[in-house]
Amino acid sequence: MGTEPAGGDSGVHRSGRQLSRRNPVRTRTAMAARPQSGWPRTGPVLSIAAGALGGMLLMVAVAAPAAMADAAPDHALSRLQAETRDLEAATGSLSEAVRDARMLLAQSGPPAGVSQPALARMDARLSTVEHDLRTLTGKAEQLGFDVRQMRDRLETVISDMEMRLARLEREAGLAASPPAATPAPEPGIAAVPDRAPGDSLPSRGAERPPAGNEAVAALPEGSPQQQYAHAFGLLRAGDYDRAEAALKAFVDRHPDDALSGNARYWLGETHYVRGNYAAAAQAFLNAYQSETNGAKAPDSLLKLGMALARLDKRNEACATFQELERSQPQASPTIRQKAEEEKARIGCS
Hints:
Shape: globular
Strand content: under 5%
Order of helices and strands: HHHHHHHHHHHHH
Number of helices: 13
Number of strands: 0
CATH topology of the largest domain: Methane Monooxygenase Hydroxylase, Chain G, domain 1
Number of domains: 2
Largest sheet: none
Structural class: mainly alpha
Helix content: over 70%
């Protein structure tokens, strides 16, 4: 076993400090967006940056259990949340750099002497980088919500232990005075110990739907990337009503944007976590049908099946899980395992 560095910093914390100190992603994206003499060298730089980001994402995912074991749980979760925020910012910067590179190529055209096959290879490389970035964006978002779910469960366990201890003290006559009230949970965080396994977000009771004027003003001015970040920030904060309105507005305004598939999926989650399974099923179906080969297609099919199961539509749910297995060979082991668990739970043949 390796020795942890002085100060108790784990690999996760070191990577966060290095990212914030040297900010290699911003350096690479700046290099990618700045044209050099002759042909702009965006392809190799962006590929290296995307590969580095993928390595960071893998390191955070692998280091998460170690961080939980090596430090106080709440402190470790705070560090992991900071790491995922860095990852989300980095993927956003790289996505903007790829778009800038495409605009540069479209506006300036290839320099003299560059063959058409070379231009086609450059375009194919940019398309590959864009696809990889969409995948990384989805993984970074999912990792962030997994961390949020861990924090919610920890708070639930602590609250439950405090209440049990207070009850035992009262029953044993050990408490000289009534125990202090258990602190209320943070706004937007619900302590729901019986949340269905595999749910990505903490559940909360349904609230007043947003008024029409609120939906119109759901998104701030700015680029699609900035508007998506705003909507996703509301989702991450547990403000599901406003997140629903913002994500709807984003899909309506930017139906063909690279982030629209993610927006459609997370729109389904805003319904699912509030127990609106019919609306969730429709949203997940829309998300899948809009991009059957997209990065979020496996997630959309999984949650569609789970929503149908909670609507007591067993046959439809089983058919959805079969479609996931048939049409999504690239689905992650985690998604496949969750689908098998759901099939066993509802008795799919």
